[in-house]
């Protein structure tokens, strides 16, 4: 009969820990780039959603339109965060699929 098997649970927990560690490593290694304003503002972000770099085309600064520049920076940061989410969902889905769990 199907009794409780502590060894099976222990193996599953060890596998989950390895998957978690792999996910953490992939989050640190993941770097995405997104831009706005036709490439006027570019943001690089890691998988932990830390902004690594912001590049602003000099012409954007010369326009003197501070409000537009702020909007472009916000849009580029949001686009980069969305890319991180998409990559992490894809990575997590693949990892859970490898464990035989429904996603």
Residue stretches low in confidence (pLDDT < 50, at least 5 long) are none
Tell me the overall shape: rod-shaped
Distance between the termini: 28 Å
Per CATH, the class reads Alpha Beta
What's the CATH H-level superfamily name?
Answer: Nucleoid-associated protein YbaB-like domain
Order of helices and strands: HEEEHH
Q: Please give the CATH architecture.
A: 2-Layer Sandwich
* Rounded mean pLDDT score: 86
Structural class: alpha+beta
> What is the C-alpha radius of gyration, as a whole number of Å?
20 Å
Strand order of the largest sheet: 1-2-3
Tell me the major beta sheet: 3 strands, antiparallel
Q: Helix coverage percent of residues? A: 55-70%
Give me the count of strands.
3
Helix run count? 3
The number of domains is 1
The proportion of strand residues reads 15-25%
| CATH topological fold name | Ybab, Chain: A
List its salient traits:
alpha+beta, 3 strands, 3-stranded antiparallel sheet, 3 helices, Ybab, Chain: A, 103 residues
Describe this structure in words.
Helices cover 61% and strands 17% of the residues. The radius of gyration is 20 Å and the shape is rod-shaped. It has helices spanning 6-29, 58-62, 66-99, and strands at 31-36, 41-46, 51-56. With 103 residues, the protein is α+β, with helices and mostly antiparallel strands.
């Amino acid at each position: 009969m199907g009794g409780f098997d502590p060894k099976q649970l222990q193996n599953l927990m060890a596998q989950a820990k390895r998957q978690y560690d792999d996910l953490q490593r992939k989050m640190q290694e993941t770097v995405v780039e997104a831009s706005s304003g036709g490439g006027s503002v570019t943001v690089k972000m890691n998988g932990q959603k830390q902004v690594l770099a912001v590049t602003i085309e000099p012409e954007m600064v010369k326009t003197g339109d501070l409000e537009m520049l702020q909007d472009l920076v916000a849009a580029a940061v949001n686009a980069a965060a969305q890319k991180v989410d998409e990559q992490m969902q894809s990575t997590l889905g693949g990892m859970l699929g490898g464990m035989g769990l429904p996603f």
